[in-house]
Amino acid sequence: DEKDYELIQEIFNRKKKKCGARFIKMALENTKGITMNLKRIFRVMRKYNLVTKIRRANPYKQIAKATQEHKTCPNLLQRQFNQEEPEKSMLTDITYLFYGKGKKAYLSCVKDSTTREILAYHVSPSLQMDIVYQTLDKLKDRLGDTIHPEALLHSDQGITTRIRNFSAV
């Protein structure tokens, strides 16, 4: 147990006491090439009183859940994305693009759910509301006056599309 304790304690202290037995098991296998039973790690941690610091819950997430603030619009499509008419239902999302040495860009796009065609997109180095507005401006330029009267823009209701100004657009 002494040798096991030293190995476990080394990883435990290196991670500032914020890792549990499962993480220690993976770290032993990946860094040292040592396979150790999870029950043994639990037992050694208990025996030598290695207690993991538990992360605190994020109070902002709890507030958002309590107030249902994260659901700003009803889900009108109910996953019925194929509407049989082009430009009647459009999907939007923002994704991360990693490039170079640790650099990141953001891609905002609008896709027609029927034809699966990308109708508008915008790439930005920062994740601010401007990326969404730029994408919507490009969508308006492309569609012009031919916007379907029952057109819907469906999103995953992430933080950028939950902002009240976006709903007004």
UniProtKB/TrEMBL annotation:
GO terms for biological process: DNA integration. Transmembrane segments: none annotated. It comes from the Bacteria. Pfam families: HTH_21. This is IS3 family transposase. Involved in the transposition of the insertion sequence. InterPro entries: HTH-like_dom, Integrase_cat-core, RNaseH-like_sf, Transposase_IS3/IS150/IS904. Residues 82-169 form the Integrase catalytic domain.
